[in-house]
Design a protein that fits this description.
The chain has helices at residues 6-9, 22-33, 51-63, 77-84, 101-111, 133-144, 164-167, 180-194, 200-209, 214-227, 235-242, 247-258, 262-274, 279-297, 311-319, 322-339, 345-358, 365-382, 401-409, 438-446, 450-466, 471-478, 496-503, 505-517, 530-543, 574-591, and strands spanning 40-44, 90-94, 121-126, 150-156, 171-174, 197-198, 232-233, 480-484, 488-493, 524-529. The protein is of the alpha/beta class. Bound molecules: zinc ion (ZN).
């Protein structure tokens, strides 16, 4: 006998077997009980959530020899016939393969005949959004004046693709993704019936990997059974089949990041990649893990998975702040978006890991440099040009022309991720070595306005929400507004690298555009690292008084590069110009998140 997939073999045959969607089942049963069955239903929802299963049970309940009743007997010949697909009164159409108008016209012609054995003709049209326009029009004609004995049940994962004329004629039910407990419950019933032994951890992993779809859960279960050579299926078996990363491994990686131990985190990531896990899956699993930590911290965990009771998980959740989680989620989401079209997915993942580890160690320059190098490497690797400038730390003077020539002559390192060349020089044509001066800060502080600051803080929140996909905007709003005067702003950031990045001309332009959309009336800004700001703040506070409101600050080294516009670059040498252009282009590509 041919093998029947578990999800087919264990498809619920009665309403009482269905897990989840209880509100929909109640409503359908009430309609049957009160004799108020609609002539057209629309079942919408993610795949594997029971839409066609419920449609078939509904068809049975209506046509059962003992019905219509709120539960089919599942034993009479009509119930059995519907299950086997041998009763002509219940017609299943897969619109994904029958999207022609002809099929629907044939359907329209057959609609007028009375049911052969049952009480209703039930047409179940799966993936109804796939119908062609002509087919929709033909269907619409039938829906407009349906014979009393006909019931349509349309199922779709994409209801927004349906014409409103169809939508308005159906009673709509939205199916929800299944809760993990519901999936677990069903999995355990199936495992018992099949006499399969599996550890609790493995059950949990299947249920959570399925992302709310019962069909996916049972398919994964099926594959794992074929894969496992043990008497009892283990978590490792499930992970090997699903490609997911276990909570324990994720916890170790993220814990290393939280401790600021980027090296250790990279080592752990390397180990799981060697096991054959794919980068996008790893990132996705990290996002889901962090979401769970966030839910746990908000006491919003609804399901009762084992992982949430593990002491390490609880300790980690207590240790990490929500701010850090949001920050990490930003990094990971950004990585997800930017690496999609790249072959260098691994470098992107490593970069994200280092940025995440950087949150604690942002004063440590070498890590920052490593980040800049990796960013550069990613770009270099993806560039087809054989010749390109080398990676460059930000704080350097403009190189001489000789130095530039020398750099151009050097080949690109084959594997810069493994062997970073920290000493590589680099031209910085747009930002010069000029630093922001204390006087400029002084001017803003002496004319600062509290009401402007409050207004800007409100705008900050909006920017954070509306520009969540733009990296520079996210760096900006991660900073704290410390002073605003009529049109200038001082923002304090956690690290110097980010300050300098925001001061780059192309980023300045982007930020100015954003300010403009909020009518913020800001024409310039200065970014300061926290350490410098603390010194300035202490100096300012010690000198300020009501009698003496204009303060002269001590002249200290700020270390943040001054923004310089491209036309201000004085050197007009042709080769130099070309190089500038190349670097500019590349920087924009990198920063266009
Ligand atoms: Zn029956």
């Amino acid at each position: 006998m041919a093998y029947v997939a578990l999800y087919r073999a264990y498809r619920p045959q009665k309403f009482c077997d269905v897990v989840g969607q209880q509100h929909i089942i109640k409503t359908l049963q009430n309609a049957i009980k009160l004799n108020k069955v609609a002539h057209a239903y629309l079942f919408c929802g993610p795949r594997g959530t029971g839409k066609t299963t419920l449609a078939k049970i509904m068809a049975k309940a209506l046509n059962c020899v003992h019905g219509p009743s709120i539960e089919p007997c599942d034993e009479c010949e009509i119930c059995q016939g519907i299950q086997k697909g041998t009763i002509a009164d219940v017609v299943e159409i897969d619109a994904a393969s029958n999207n022609g108008a002809d099929d629907i016209r044939a359907l329209r012609d057959s609609v007028k005949y009375m049911p052969a054995v049952g009480k209703y003709k039930v047409y179940i049209i799966d993936e109804v959004h796939m119908l062609s326009n002509a087919a929709f029009n033909a269907l619409l004609k039938t829906l407009e004046e349906p014979p009393k004995h006909v019931i349509f049940i349309l199922a779709t994962t994409e209801p927004y693709k349906l014409p409103s004329t169809i939508l308005s004629r159906c009673q709509r039910f939205d199916f929800q993704s299944l809760a993990i407990e519901d999936i677990l419950k069903r999995l355990k019933i199936v495992a018992e019936a099949e006499n399969i032994h599996m550890t609790e951890e493995a059950f949990n992993q299947i249920a959570s990997s399925a992302e709310g779809g019962m069909r996916d859960a049972l398919s994964l279960f099926d594959q794992t059974i074929s894969f496992s050579i043990h008497d009892e299926i283990t978590l490792e078996d499930v992970l090997a089949v699903s490609g997911n990363v276990s909570y324990k491994e994720l916890l170790k990686i993220l814990d290393a990041c939280l401790e600021g131990n980027g090296t250790e985190a990279l080592k752990l990531v390397d180990a799981i990649l060697k096991e054959g896990k794919e980068v996008p899956r790893v990132i996705n699993d990290m996002i889901i893990f962090l979401r769970d930590v966030l839910l746990f911290k908000s006491n919003a965990i609804l399901d009762d998975r084992l992982e949430f009771h593990a002491q390490e998980f609880i300790d980690f959740a207590k240790k990490i702040s929500k701010t850090v989680i949001y920050d990490w989620l930003n990094h990971l989401n950004e990585t997800n978006n930017t690496m999609r079209f790249s072959n260098q997915k691994r470098a992107y993942l490593e970069l994200a890991i280092l940025k995440m580890s950087d949150i604690k160690l942002n004063e440590e320059a070498n890590l920052l440099e490593r980040i800049e190098q990796l960013e550069h490497t990613i770009h270099m690797l993806s560039m087809t040009k054989a010749e390109a400038p080398k990676p460059q730390p930000i704080e350097v003077n403009i190189p001489t022309r000789e130095e530039i020539k020398q750099m151009q002559a050097e080949p690109i390192s084959e594997d810069p991720v493994e062997e970073p060349k920290i000493e590589a020089p680099k031209p910085q044509p747009i930002v010069t070595s000029n630093e922001v001066q204390v006087e400029e800060i002084e001017e803003i502080l002496n004319s600062a306005s509290k009401s402007r600051k409050v207004r800007l803080q409100a705008i900050w929140k909006q920017i954070g929400l509306e520009y969540s996909g733009m990296f520079v905007a996210q760096i900006l709003v991660a900073g704290e507004i410390v002073a605003v005067n009529e049109n200038k702003l001082i923002v304090v950031l956690n690290d110097l690298g980010f300050c300098n990045r925001l001061m780059r001309y192309e980023n300045y332009q982007k930020i100015m555009e954003i300010f403009e959309t909020f009518n913020a009336n800001i024409t310039d800004y200065i970014c300061l690292p926290k350490g410098i700001w603390n010194k300035i703040k202490a100096d300012y506070a010690s000198k300020y008084s009501q009698e003496n409101p204009v303060v002269h600050l001590e002249k200290i080294k700020i270390g943040v590069l001054k923004r310089k516009e491209p036309e201000q670059v004085e050197n007009k040498d042709e080769q130099y110009e070309q190089l500038c252009e190349l670097i500019e282009k590349e920087k924009i590509e990198i920063s266009e998140d």
